[in-house]
Write a structure and sequence with these properties.
Layout (H helix, E strand, L loop, with lengths): L1 E3 L5 E3 L5 H17 L2 H20 L5 H13 L4
Antiparallel strand pairs: 1-2
């Protein structure tokens, strides 16, 4: 995978996490059973934004806090 770093550099990397892949797929299946379609679609639209903020280290900003509050509320049934 070729990535654009925060400082503008390009880098190559390989990421493998087979255990996490299994857990992620199991979690997605539980979500399909417990969450309604509209909530899943909203989650899917917000997930890339959350992932980018985590990747760049924006843990302590109001936007991340708001997104995290949504995730916590949406994931309660799961």
């Amino acid at each position: 995978m070729v990535e654009n770093r925060f400082v503008g550099m390009k880098s190559r990397g390989v990421y493998e996490a087979p255990g996490m892949t299994v857990l992620y797929e199991a979690h997605r299946l539980v979500e399909q059973l417990t969450l309604d379609r509209d909530l899943v679609h909203l989650r899917d639209r917000l997930a890339p934004e959350v992932a980018e903020m985590v990747y760049y280290g924006f843990w302590f900003c109001p936007k991340f806090d708001a997104l995290l509050a949504f995730i916590r509320q949406a994931q309660q049934p799961v």
